[in-house]
């Protein structure tokens, strides 16, 4: 392709998309010099990804998403922009600030990624824009509004999406009114252990599935108190939210369709512990429960803050376990070892879920470009119902465990 053809293709694609995204001419005329200096990077067939909330290297979920994109693991996603309000602002001189600066310099020089402190500073899209929002949950309502205003065609929203059902519902309505689609980073929806377990259970009539999720916190009042305070939304909205999304996506679980929920009192444990601030928090450090739906489904979830690093699922028949599948499985353990050796200080869950993060991003980016269905990806409707279920279950389970 000659430069002229490429330029005219870019111009036509750009103007068509600007018109579609509703950005006015005056808005693009009033673009800052900073925005005008930014250049397009996404190629034909790629979404122009804006990563919102990169976070600190080795710590932030956003950083890992960015890494997978600059390493070209997702062919339909071009990481064109990173928006990082904290580490390029007030947090720049604090913990993680230097690591972030180093990462920024490398991604700018090696991969041509452009950095900004706000979505409001970006120029209009030159290709179908996908905003991947991986900020702090409390900031998401504002970030989603800004992503819509900056011309995003689609938004990839990290779980759980918002602190409350009311906020997430309002975000859903705002996006729908603007004609912008919102898909969720519920990666366990596309995970191998989940599909293998569901397939096996489907072949055994009368069997029962339990999804198990573990964290590796130390089992001390200090460690759990810190965990309770940092994840103050509680275990169901924070840790077990992935499993609740599975129940909503695959087992028809909705607040209206729940017939009963029963805590396993022997397994479960609820504690009131002081966090680092001195304030006390009541939460589950372990929870196991079974939900029956009005249309005859039955499924269990088990989550343990101090259970280790594995997630897995089991199938039982007549109370006997007949199947178990781990994440990672034997095939993926090699990849986990390789990634751990390459990034020894990074969060371990990046590596066990590495293939699933790639799958979700690629499907969402491809969908942003060609509009074909993003198979298995949770929508914001699923996310709203998932949060509703979490808010509904928490007081019921707390009551049962008193
Ligand atoms: N899908 C998954 O498996 C998975 C795993 C972990 C996190 N997440 C989700 O990803 C999102 C980001 O999580 P994270 O753990 O990377 O969050 P994080 O708090 O480490 O970083 C998110 C953003 O918060 C800002 N920030 C960081 N420290 C700050 C501070 N001290 N004060 C103010 N702002 C600060 C930064 O802008 C950063 O980009 C959340 O929605 C989380 O639920 C998903």
UniProtKB/TrEMBL annotation:
GO terms for molecular function: nucleotide binding; oxidoreductase activity. InterPro entries: Gfo/Idh/MocA-like_OxRdtase_N (IPR000683), NAD(P)-bd_dom_sf (IPR036291). GO terms for cellular component: cytoplasm. Keywords: Oxidoreductase. Residues 108-186 form the Gfo/Idh/MocA-like oxidoreductase N-terminal domain. SUPFAM superfamilies: NAD(P)-binding Rossmann-fold domains. Transmembrane segments: none annotated. Gene3D superfamilies: Dihydrodipicolinate Reductase, domain 2, NAD(P)-binding Rossmann-like Domain. GO terms for biological process: NADPH regeneration. This is Gfo/Idh/MocA-like oxidoreductase N-terminal domain-containing protein.
């Amino acid at each position: 392709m000659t430069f002229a053809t490429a330029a005219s293709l870019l111009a036509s694609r750009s103007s068509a998309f600007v018109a579609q995204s509703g950005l006015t001419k005056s808005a693009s005329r009033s673009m800052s010099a900073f925005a005008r200096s930014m250049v397009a990077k996404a190629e034909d067939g790629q979404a122009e990804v804006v990563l919102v909330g990169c976070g600190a290297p080795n710590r932030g979920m956003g950083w890992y998403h960015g890494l997978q994109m600059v390493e070209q693991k997702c062919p339909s996603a071009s990481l064109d922009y990173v928006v990082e309000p904290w580490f390029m602002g007030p947090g720049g001189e604090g913990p993680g600030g230097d690591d972030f600066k180093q990462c920024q310099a490398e991604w700018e020089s090696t991969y041509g990624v452009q950095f900004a402190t706000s979505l409001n500073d970006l120029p209009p899209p030159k290709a179908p824009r996908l905003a991947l929002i991986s900020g702090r949950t409390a900031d998401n309502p504002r970030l989603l509004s800004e992503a819509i205003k900056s011309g995003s065609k689609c938004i990839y929203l990290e779980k759980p999406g918002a602190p409350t059902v009311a906020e997430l519902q309002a975000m859903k309505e705002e996006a729908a009114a603007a004609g912008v689609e919102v898909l969720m980073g519920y990666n366990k929806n596309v995970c191998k252990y989940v599909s293998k377990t569901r397939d096996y259970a489907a072949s055994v009539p009368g069997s029962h599935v339990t999804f198990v999720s573990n964290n590796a916190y130390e089992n001390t009042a200090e460690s759990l108190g810190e965990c309770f305070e940092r994840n103050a939304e509680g275990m169901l909205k924070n840790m077990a939210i992935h499993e609740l999304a599975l129940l909503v996506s695959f087992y028809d679980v909705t607040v209206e369709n729940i017939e009963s929920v029963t805590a396993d009192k022997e397994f479960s444990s609820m504690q009131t512990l002081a966090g680092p601030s001195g304030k006390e928090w009541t939460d589950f450090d372990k929870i196991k429960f079974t939900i029956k739906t009005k249309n005859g489904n039955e499924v269990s979830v088990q989550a343990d803050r101090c259970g280790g690093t594995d997630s897995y699922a089991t199938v039982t028949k007549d109370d006997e376990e007949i199947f178990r599948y781990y994440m990672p499985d034997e095939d993926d353990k090699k990849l986990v070892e390789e990634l751990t050796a390459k990034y020894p200080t990074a969060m371990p869950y990046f590596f066990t879920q590495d293939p699933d993060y790639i799958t979700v991003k690629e499907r969402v980016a491809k969908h942003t470009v060609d509009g074909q269905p993003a198979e298995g990806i949770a929508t914001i409707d699923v996310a709203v119902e998932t949060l509703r279920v979490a808010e509904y279950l928490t007081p019921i389970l707390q009551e049962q465990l008193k």
